[in-house]
Amino acid sequence: MNGRRMRAAAVLASVTLAGSVVSAAPSTASDQPKERYDVSRHQTTDRAAAAQVRAILDHLPADWQANRDAFLDKAGIEPSPAEDAIIAYLERATCEETELNAYIETLLKGVPDDTLFVLAVLGVLSYPTFDAVIGGTKTDPRYSLETGTVGKVRQSMAAARQLWDVKNGDIDVMGMHSDMVVDRARVIRVLRVVFGVSPKDAQEAGTQIVRLIKATPALRGGTNPLFSLNAFAFTGEGDPDFGGISDRIVMGEGIIKALRWTDDIAVGPQMVLSHEFGHHIQFENHAYPATESPANTRKMELMADAYGAYLDAHAKGLNFTPKQIDGTVAVSHLVGDCSVDSLGHHGTPAQRARAARWGADLALKNGSNVLPSKRVQALFLTALPGILRG
Q: 10 Å Cβ neighbour count for 291?
């Protein structure tokens, strides 16, 4: 990252899901991937996977990865957590379990390893995220919020706008859906805008990608929630390359379905929205550090958890009951990760739960008084060492 204050933030950390995939996978060596896969080097002993990857890479320019990384850097967004989950599974990484394990296992069940390798090399799990930035609008039904969550999300957004003391009237809230990956025109747009692929080659590569997804039954015709298992905040303010693209909070249908599957749907969508709004507070208050590091990423994510739980618990916010506050803390725990040395580290499950509990307690302690957002930030930074230690 270049250290600019604009940065999108996913609600899930990459290795959270990576750990879920690995630990949920069968434990015997014979049930691990039979071939060897090195996603970063595009190398595998699986001849079928190697041939599939080469057939598509032949249509991508030599600098396609550099173009993608530059886009990620400028947009301040991270790759899909599910993308790193697949990489960790294929490369036999290990990580701490979370409650998402069983759900991730159901999503991967029946997807061939060679197909997972192709998706991982080409970063297809991030296409809906890219698409939501470059093409999403709040009035387009293709970016509608997941059914059953609209009321909760709108209520949370209204409470956030009223409670917090930062400019927020320009934030759009929208959804992203897995089936974007079988919309050939949108896949082609991602290849052209993000990867710098020529029009002709983008059409050919896009056709092959869509064909592969549709030909894999376990990917459910492109509706597998893996493709949208993410939520993020985005701002392009001050960057001419993103002129005309609104500030936004994007909530993937995949994360909503995960919350429903883990029985956290009662307060999960509210906490996801509250957390992502916390990142917009950080954008407006120029809170992001000038340098990127695992510790700095963790600090920003835990602070967003605290902001989110503060909103959920406050009498002038969502005014959650004690049971609902416990649910908010549980959701924060659910999406923790153990990748402490990764730039994408968002905090361990226990740390994220403690950050949320701290934010909720702060709200309850102050009664009807609403603290300025910068005051909450200052108090959080003072409390952070204890949140990290436990």
A: 9
